[in-house]
Amino acid sequence: MKPTRLTREQSRDQTRQRLLDAAQTIFMKKGFGAASVEDLAAAAGYTRGAFYSNFGSKSELLLQLLKRDHETTMGRMRSIFEDGEASRADMEARVLEYYSQVHFENKCFLLWVEAKLHASRDAKFRVRFNALMRELRQTTTDYIRAFSERVGTPLPMPAEQLALGLIALCDGVQFFYSSDPQSVPGEFAEAVLAGFFARVVFGAARGD
């Protein structure tokens, strides 16, 4: 049986995905600055020319990696709200499970760290990166509001402030867990993240 021949569009998409996957591994191992276009292309099994046929620069490829991870994160957040009949207890449990485990499952954390460093040095990249970060903050804000309305829990502070605090807390816990897992083991990190929601977001309603 002959293998199915890919269309030009499918072949191009396959090439892009392989370059993205290879770049994710290389960036996390060597760092964005130390990785060359040749490194990325070779790791994916392509030439330098193939790289530039798909991406204008390393910065563009990094941004596409972040967007891919961002879309995955948004999909996971949406799944929390898919069941319109879920009880308040179920909703709380889903949110706690998601945020208490995020440090284990965030495989692209170092990419975001690399991107923040790159954004501090590259004004052009900074504009596009900040737009993505604002989208993340706005989406998180919207979900916090939606959650509050669904479960009938008044927020202890504006949703925008909670969203910023939550993102910063997740980043901070992830950083300590990644760099010093002996003093900040997974169970400790999980307790911090779960405790934020249990007491700050749910606290008023639970009366803890």
Automatic annotation (TrEMBL):
Signal peptide start and end residues: none
One MF term in the entry's GO annotations: DNA binding
Domain of life where this protein originates: Bacteria
Sorted UniProt keywords: DNA-binding, Repressor, Transcription, Transcription regulation
Annotated source species: Caballeronia choica
InterPro entries: BetI_C, Homeodomain-like_sf, HTH_TetR, Tet_transcr_reg_TetR-rel_C_sf
Domain HTH tetR-type: residue ranges: 13-73
DNA-binding annotation, residue ranges on this chain: 36-55
Pfam families for the chain: TetR_C_6 (PF13977), TetR_N (PF00440)
Protein name per UniProt: TetR family regulatory protein
